[in-house]
Amino acid sequence: MHIPVALELENLFKLNFFSNLDYYFAKSMERAFKEKNKLVLATCALVSRSLREGHICIDIPKLSDQVIPWSEAINEIIKYPNKDLWLDALIQSSLIENTKPAPLVIDSCHRLYFSKYYNFQQRLISNIFARLSIPCVVSAKGIIDSKVHEYFHSTKPQELLQKEAIVHAVTSNFTLISGGPGTGKTFVTTIIKNILREYFKKKSSEQPKILCLAPTGKAAAKLDQGQTIHSALKPIRGSTGFYYNRKNKISADAVIIDEASMIDLPLLTRLLEAIPSKAKIILLGDHHQLSSVQAGAVFSDLCKVKNMSSHIFVLEHNFRSKGQSGIENLSKYINNNTPEKVENLLSSNQYSDVLFEDIDKSKSIDKIIQNHIIDGYQPFMLSQDEEKAMGELDTFKILCAHNSGEYGTLQINHLSEKILRSQFKFDIHKRLKKRIIMINTNDYQKKLFNGDTGVVFENQEEGKVYFKDRENRIKTYRYSDLPRHETAFGITIHKSQGAEFDTILLIIPDKLSPVMTRQLLYTAVTRARKKVIIVGQLKIIKSAIRSNVQRNSGITQYLEKEIGNLNY
Fold first, then answer.
1. What's the whole-model pTM score?
2. Ranked by mean pLDDT, which of 319-323, 392-396, 460-464 comes out on top?
3. What is the DSSP letter of 434?
4. Are 43 and 103 in contact, with CB atoms under 8 Å apart?
């Protein structure tokens, strides 16, 4: 028999539904605003919890009267209140913004936000709407058409959408291009840049200023003259703000933003506000991929705006594998929510680029993982100098769903070091001679950024660490001078975004968790260029495919409403 638990702060904190952060935020609001209503206080904690889960807001009409399971151990279920009762309590609270500023905001659709995030959302919508409202004056159309014809000689339907995306990006102020690996986003980006240079040369004698940005160092390194968003905006020391902002615009004629699905709401808002209104913006990403670690699924939300469809181009044809690879078909089956097809593909061994190790049928999971770690990292471990070692960084990678737990990165990295130390040469202190690390902060002085991957060469004195810069040159650092970092033989799937590897070893946890979703599996599988090895249980994989992440926001609906009022 299920035990219903009402939305009440103290009880849900004891059940670990609310974290310490959620609980003490609600308690601080209780003291600051002298709030006595228990439902309002529990809702404060719920807004905090939702934000931690990546939601920009709580959709009260959707949640009202819902019953959700929480603890299977003692059969607890959480029952959300009636919509009218809930809204009445909130509207009467001084915590809700009305005529005076307050921590929380309810919009006309009864979505509840932190006022800060509501502000970010509305600023983003206003910025995009303003760009869409600017009339596009196309000159030198003949040059654009002739340049496009130089790159495309056939009339194949799969190339038609690429051509349309390129022409739109060159002639319009705002363009979104979504597509998975192999669909030609890099190819399209290169052509856009080349045509923009020719286009601006005819309009002006000066070369256009084209910025190529990405959210992480790894993603930026893949772009020609790429840089991270943070480095372009220039963070102000000791502040959360940037030197370039809505009052101090960055100099640019066009801005190409790659891996846009990884960008959270506050950062994308600040970036767009820092870009001149007449500059062309091209957002590229994969709307099927995992969303940002922080709040929002902005790129995905924008791709859903129906009356903005003339600005959105979804590339689906895979020019790399042309429908013939197991990786492509597996990613399609995951994305299309067809777990039975995934099971058939994994069980059939019909594709040489997909290997499934079913741990339900084997008791030697440690041995399976050990063999793949040795095979995968052997070229790296046998490389004799830093240049060869750096060249092997993208040949193999272990991907995990979590940091903690038996199958998380902490344990897998410990296991990897142990296996590789016993298999290959080690020094008298049993330290690995070579180790892969990943930077997990931004250090602008050292020019090392979140996601940068390097190689540690250890000796008896002090370790040297090697990274590649944006020009593909090797940079050397002392190990003791590095900013915050971690061992990276295995990394989380979240941190693998923006990167590709020849082979990935995907380790599925033995228990289902909230992070095990369709988007997570799709992102993991599409990191592999040549081969994906999956170690896990089919029942966990199939359950994850059925779990689809939908982050709450008002971006899609608000933009549709704004654009609906614009006749264009």
1. 0.89
2. 392-396
3. E
4. no
